[in-house]
Predict the 3D structure of the following.
Amino acid sequence: MIKNSASCKQRGVGWKSSGQLETRYSLMHNIPKTNQFVVAALYQFISVDDIELWQKKLKDICTSCDLMGTLLIADEGLNGTISGRCDDMHRFIDWLLEKTIFSAPELKFAVHETLPFHRMKVRLKREIVTMGAKGISPTRQAGTYVSPKDWNALISEPGVMVVDTRNDYEVAIGQFQGAVNPLTKTFREFPQWAEALAAMPEEERPKKLAMYCTGGIRCEKSTALMKNLGFEDVYHLKGGILQYLEDIPQEQSLWEGECFVFDSRVAVDHNLQRGQYALCHACKMPLNADEMKTQAYVAGISCPHCIDKTSAIQRARFAERARQIELAKQRGTTHIGVSPKISKSQKMTPKKVNRKIYKSEKS
Ligand SMILES: [Zn+2]
């Protein structure tokens, strides 16, 4: 389980983010000092000439530092989440900043009681965050960064269109006041929405765009897309929603609801504490308290979103998996056994079901 920010802060550790202006010293200094596991989420858009060479170098260093997790490398940069012991993470980050082209990554750290990953993968990809639009280069074209402290003023300006670049199931549980929801099921659908906006008559098209996402990577790419489509005044929230929640006091906050996160907390509130949502472990949809009270919801097995989409055999496998995880918990070990995944064609991703669900919820 990931420690929330508030309790970590008291012990001098917690979520930290960095930018190009921060020194190597402060990046190293931000690594939590803990006997538990350190999780690092990092990305950097940078033009990479030899992705195979970097794949090999990253694999070697991660193996020698005993790190687990996934890194994605593409022509446009590096992205991923890794975990390990504090000293090992220190060694890796030191190497990354000193010996590689990835010397100015966006970095966030958290502390985890158990090792959250059990393999180390370094994958070659076409994009480090998949949008599917051709000819987009965040290293050349991205919008202007706005720090969390300047964000409220920007989004309160008349005539500014505030755009939430996240998926609909994320927007559904929280967003900035007045933000536009492009109703995308996946980030791949974003360019279609953006092109439609660009095709509007001149007088109806927004003159100024303020864009945001969870940690910054998706809006870095989508601001590049908007620039490519001819929008000139394009801004994005540096460090994303998570940085805003960390920096801005709740009484000044223009954030409403909870922020969906891609870890065991599911969603966080304004204090970055675990929110009220749980994840269905069969289909990975966030579930609110009411949904968890329905008959369809059985922890680890089914929920209202997926009960009709899985077979009895699959649910039996989920039940067995839940039983194994519970046993592992009681033994104080982590379950890393077989993962009884739904076959690809039947797989219920949040992406596949969210539109239907949240449309009916919101209306
Ligand atoms: Zn489900």
The pocket of zinc ion is lined by residues 280, 282-283, 285, 302-303, 305-306 (CB under 6 Å). The first strand starts at residue 37 and ends at 45. The mean pLDDT is 84. The chain has three domains: 5-124, 138-259, 279-362.
